[in-house]
Specification:
The complex is a heterodimer.
Chain A lengths: L3 E4 L2 E4 L5 E7 L5 E7 L5 E7 L6 E2 L10 E5 L2 E6 L8 E8 L8 E3 L3 E5 L1
Parallel strand pairs in A: 2-11
Antiparallel strand pairs in A: 1-3, 3-8, 4-5, 4-9, 5-6, 7-8, 9-10, 9-11
Chain B lengths: L2 E5 L2 E5 L4 E8 L5 E7 L5 E7 L5 E3 L5 E5 L4 E6 L8 E11 L2 E6 L3 E6 L1
Parallel strand pairs in B: 2-11
Antiparallel strand pairs in B: 1-3, 3-8, 4-5, 4-9, 6-7, 7-8, 9-10, 9-11
The chains are: A mainly beta, B mainly beta.
Chain lengths: 116, 115
């Protein structure tokens, strides 16, 4: 399994501002993903972070709102832009490795975001 | 698209009792199935996985799950509940779309253990 570090672990932000969340893995991985977990709900995939190219977004999520970077095989960032209270959620990074063929994803501890 | 249904958003059992968390999936191809656990204020931890090998899968912390193709089910069980098992449990199925592997999660089941 991989060790995944997410920063910050939690934050309280004012509406209209932006927050960038970092995800660092201790080994090279082929796939990195960003999920949102709204209060009391399950996980929803925001996008797949692609190394060296634009992220692949799921229906309902757009790049202007959730820009993602992935400069190398161990690091990715997710920015939550122009925040509103509806963006209050847990944001989780996960990683997977196509080479294993197991489809397993390992998750970071998440970033707990509250927007006032 | 694949989907996952977890029956029961809340399950409460007594300490020492059997734990049964239900999961049904829909898939047109042999699936990869997972159970994850989320303890309060933590991320998701992999409990166990089914990847087309043995139908009875053993995981961590005494949990196991049985893949039943005829019932499209992957229920999670533990013979004797412990207070430390109190958490949110998520069943997930993996699908491959254009070479990308994605997890689709059920709505989750909150497990409460009564002393």
């Amino acid at each position: 399994s991989a060790v995944i570090s997410q920063k910050p672990s939690r934050d309280i932000c004012q509406r209209g501002t932006s927050l960038t969340i970092q995800c660092q893995v201790d080994s090279q991985v082929t796939m990195m993903f960003w999920y949102r977990q709204q209060p009391g709900q399950s996980l929803t995939l925001i996008a797949t972070a692609n190394q060296g190219s634009e992220a692949t977004y799921e229906s309902g999520f757009v790049i202007d709102k959730f820009p993602i970077s992935r400069p190398n095989l161990t690091f990715s960032t997710l920015t939550v832009s122009n925040m509103s209270p509806e963006d209050s959620s847990i944001y989780l990074c996960s990683v997977g490795n196509l080479m294993t063929g197991t489809h397993i994803q390992y998750f970071g501890a998440g970033t707990r975001l509250s927007v006032l | 698209a694949q989907s996952v249904t977890q029956l029961g958003s809340h399950v409460s059992v007594s300490e020492g009792a059997l734990v049964l968390l239900r999961c049904n999936y829909s898939s047109s191809v042999p699936p990869y199935l997972f159970w994850y656990v989320q303890y309060p204020n933590q991320g998701l931890q992999l409990l166990l996985k089914y990847t087309s090998a043995a139908t009875l899968v053993k995981g961590i912390n005494g949990f196991e799950a049985e893949f039943k193709k005829s019932e499209t089910s992957f229920h999670l069980t533990k013979p004797s509940a412990h207070m430390s098992d109190a958490a949110e449990y998520f069943c997930a199925v993996s699908e491959s779309i254009q070479g990308a592997q994605k997890l689709v999660f059920g709505q989750g089941t909150r497990l409460t253990i009564n002393p």
